[in-house]
Amino acid sequence: MNDTKIETVREEILALFSHELKTPLTLITGWCQVMQSPKILGRLKKDQLHAVDVIYSNVLKLKSDIEDILDTNKLIYGTMLFSFENIEADKLIQRIIRKLRPLTEEKNIRVMNLCKEKTILRTDPDRLQQVITNLVLNAVDFVPRNKGVIKIGTKQDDEQVIFFVVDNGKGLPKKMQKDVFKKLVQEDSSYRRKHAGLGLGLFICQGIVESLGGTIQVTSKVGKGATFYFTHPKYGNVAKFSLLRQKKHMAVSELYNLVEKTRHDQRENEMIRRLREYIEKMKNDEFLRSLEKIKQLQ
């Protein structure tokens, strides 16, 4: 089997892996959201709602792990897609803070947006958000509950923007800092047992940042927290994509993935549409009468 055929088979397996695993997870998350809403199926008992919440959080974790595996593969083979537009960095950071608020509030962690001025740059907002979110989630794992502080901000000059995420966690030993961006690296085995994860988050951060034309680094002292920071050119340029340009099959792979991404989005939207239609049908009088009969039998 020649290299071209191997690459085609690999991409077909990846597409199948993506679709067959992500589609049922989309349905599970949809049904969890239905059961969490008292307006659709009625109010659940406290222990029932807790069970649904546990299912929902674990499905989201599994979905995130699958995305990490797929993104890692794309970075290795140089097939990750980027879509550029002009954004305001401070607004993006604020959206990330809002999105992660349930997690940070549950652990009573203070998250601060230190952006002092309006910063506009041309980037892929989804990929940039993925990097910052991964760095913040990494910090959440390290900072102390009830006393944790995470600071997110930017600095800029004429050519580039520097993003930084600072935490007051336990810090990283010097020997770990040079390897922390490698695949499947976590601080130690006890950390892996305490914090479930694939060890791909920082590798993905590095791959995306370098693909966008920047660099990422960490400075830390044990017991003094850590600072992760990365650079990003103000004006995104595909010619600077270091990982993509290393691959001779870049154009073919990008086209393939663009088509596959469009198909996947269409399938996912169709699944969501069907789920919503099904929910509406379930809300009719016949379903409500059936629910009443079930309650009478209990």
Rg computed from alpha carbons, rounded to a whole number of angstroms: 22 Å
Termini separation (Å)? 62 Å
**Spatial strand arrangement across the major sheet:** 2-4-5-7-6
Please name the CATH topology of the largest domain: Heat Shock Protein 90
Using the coordinates above, name the CATH class of the largest domain: Alpha Beta
The average pLDDT is 77
CATH H level of the largest domain: which superfamily?
Answer: Histidine kinase-like ATPase, C-terminal domain
Low-confidence segments, given as residue ranges, are 188-194, 238-259
- Number-wise, the strands total 7
The main sheet comes to: 5 strands, mixed
Percentage of β-strand residues: 5-15%
* Structural class based on helices, strands and sheet pairing: alpha+beta
User: Total number of helical segments?
Assistant: 12
Quaternary structure classification: single chain
Number of domains: 2
Shape, per Cα inertia axes: globular
String of helices and strands: HHHEHHEEHEEHHHEEHHH
| CATH level-two architecture of the largest domain | 2-Layer Sandwich
Helix content: 55-70%
